[in-house]
TrEMBL record, chain A:
Broad EC category: hydrolase
GO biological process, one term: protein K48-linked deubiquitination
This protein's UniProt keywords: Hydrolase, Protease, Thiol protease, Ubl conjugation pathway
Pfam families noted in UniProt: Peptidase_C65
Name this protein carries in UniProt: ubiquitinyl hydrolase 1
Enzyme nomenclature, EC number: 3.4.19.12
Gene Ontology MF: a single term: ubiquitin binding
Family of this protein: Belongs to the peptidase C65 family.
InterPro entries for this protein: OTU_dom, Otubain, Papain-like_cys_pep_sf, Peptidase_C65_otubain, Peptidase_C65_otubain_sub1, Peptidase_C65_otubain_sub2
Domain (OTU): residue spans on this chain: 70-262
Native source organism of the sequence: Brachionus plicatilis (Marine rotifer)
Automatic annotation (TrEMBL), chain B:
Class of enzymatic activity (EC top level): transferase
Classification via SUPFAM superfamilies: UBC-like
EC number annotated for this UniProt entry: 2.3.2.23, 2.3.2.24
Pfam families to which the protein is assigned, alphabetical: UQ_con (PF00179)
Signal peptide: none
GO function term, MF aspect, one: ubiquitin conjugating enzyme activity
Organismal lineage: Eukaryota, Metazoa, Spiralia, Gnathifera, Rotifera
Spans traversing the lipid bilayer: none
UniProt record similarity statement: Belongs to the ubiquitin-conjugating enzyme family.
PROSITE patterns for the chain: UBC_1, UBC_2
Bias (Polar residues): 1-24
This protein's name: Ubiquitin-conjugating enzyme E2 C
Length: 262, 179
């Protein structure tokens, strides 16, 4: 692998830009080797190792958090972490529940119709929906964490699920553009916002993505904000606000992981 | 699907040696299917100014043609593009280059194109038609701030000079090569 990477840098007359791309790819490959797309379950306490002893804000917040939360799954920091974390945790929450799976499948089909009406070609959308539904249905009748982990660690299925989740957000935002336009100051239209900030893989997620996804799927999610602000507790924030979620995501600036309540 | 499932089976303990396999996003069969659908849709689209077709039997390499947009200095000119589709398409963008020499602020001397949707703004919902139309519109509407050809970028301010230089170059490097 390393030899290959060196060779990639050995262009003679390619432009510098291409070298940068190759370098980025090498870095991404390195990350891919070190961090699975979705990690095995690890203890929340083990996050303490990431912070120095002097880092009292983070450390005390993690210790405080461990009263209610005990386990974590880390996600790869590739810009898809929110979507991948949410997708995994949501599939996990509904696997073995055929009615819930059926509800999500029907919703996925309806979202494809919405996307067609918004001008998306079926063939650019259906492959992602098909993989999303196929993988979901493999889990309809059984709670199989091993299989779930395989699905989300294989880029062939995992990335397709991420794309479809992105499309769900895009469809929802475009359908409800009148409401959401006020939040996207720098873009002329919701279509433009979605093609720049939602649909491209590796593009990071913000509040607006989370609101759209939880609304579109009618699912409640709690985001636990763990940052350096000077308060003792990590701040939970539920989407929608008045809901009572059982899916929790841990946010540290720039990154989302899965966290489990006791 | 069966191809990707097999990949998982050998991979559950995440052995390092499998990572190169893992970067192949989808098995070749479904990428072929997608490309065939794109070809059909492109042929049915009736777009006049752009076209593309696989290069021989290789469905993963296409030759595209774009006409210079009407009302721009490129009007009346025709350019050929090469589109290379990676196995990870459409999660990964295709590599798109000018095959014909193209004098343009955002095209370098090797035909490489600086266009955001082919890079960080790529999305899996784009298709060959949207790529061709974007490259075509880039011709008449360059992004001077991120120029690859600085001579062309400087000259762009003076459209009549630009056009003269462009046509001279086109006659020498593109038109003459055609025959």
């Amino acid at each position: 692998m390393n030899e290959q990477t060196t060779q990639e840098f050995d262009f003679k007359d390619e432009m510098i830009d291409e070298k940068i791309t190759a370098q980025q790819e090498a870095i991404e490959n390195e990350i891919a080797r070190e961090q699975k797309l979705i990690s095995d379950l690890i203890k929340l306490d083990s996050l303490l190792d990431e912070y120095s002893l002097e880092d009292t804000i983070y450390r005390s917040k993690i210790i405080e958090l461990s009263a209610n939360f005990s386990l974590v799954r880390k996600t790869r920091g590739d810009g898809n972490c929110f979507f991948r974390a949410f997708g995994f945790r949501y599939f996990e929450a509904i696997m073995g529940k055929p009615d819930e799976v059926k509800r999500l499948k029907d919703l996925a089909n309806k979202i494809c119709t919405d996307l067609n009406q918004l001008g998306y070609n079926s063939f650019t959308v259906d492959d992602f929906k098909d993989v999303f539904v196929e993988e979901l249905e493999r889990l309809a009748d059984k709670s199989d964490v091993k299989l779930l982990e395989e699905i989300f660690n294989n880029p062939g299925s995992s990335d397709y699920i991420v794309v479809f989740l992105r499309l769900i957000v895009s469809a929802y935002l475009q359908k409800n553009a009148d409401f959401f336009l006020a939040f996207i100051e720098t873009y002329q239209s919701m279509k433009e916002f979605c093609s720049h900030e939602v649909e491209p893989m590796y593009k990071e997620s913000d509040h607006i993505h989370i609101i759209a996804l939880t609304n579109a799927l009618n699912v409640s999610v709690g985001i636990i904000y763990l940052d350096r602000t000077d308060q003792t507790e990590a701040t939970p924030h539920n989407f929608p606000e008045d809901s009572n979620p059982n899916i929790f995501i841990l946010y540290r600036p720039g990154h989302y992981d899965i966290i489990y309540k006791n | 699907m069966s191809g990707s499932e097999q990949q998982v089976a050998t991979n559950s303990s995440s052995g390092k040696k499998n990572d190169s396999v893992q970067t192949v996003t989808k098995d070749k069969h479904s990428v072929s299917k997608r490309l065939q659908q794109e070809l059909m849709s492109l042929m049915m689209s009736g777009e006049k100014g752009v076209s593309a077709f696989p290069d021989g039997d290789n469905l993963f390499k296409w030759i595209g043609t774009i006409q210079g947009p009407i009302g721009t200095v490129y009007e009346g000119l025709e350019y050929r593009l090469i589109l290379d589709f990676p196995n990870g398409y459409p999660i990964v963008a295709p590599k798109v280059k000018f095959e014909s020499s193209c004098f343009h602020p955002n095209v370098d001397e090797n035909g490489n194109i600086c266009l955001d949707i082919l890079r960080e703004k790529w999305s899996a919902t784009y298709d060959v038609l949207s790529i061709l139309l974007s490259v075509q519109s880039l011709l008449g509407d360059p992004n001077i701030a991120s120029a690859l050809n600085h001579h062309a970028a400087d000259l762009w301010k003076n459209q009549s000079l630009f056009k003269k230089y462009l046509l001279d170059k086109y006659d020498k490097e593109v038109r003459n090569k055609k025959f």
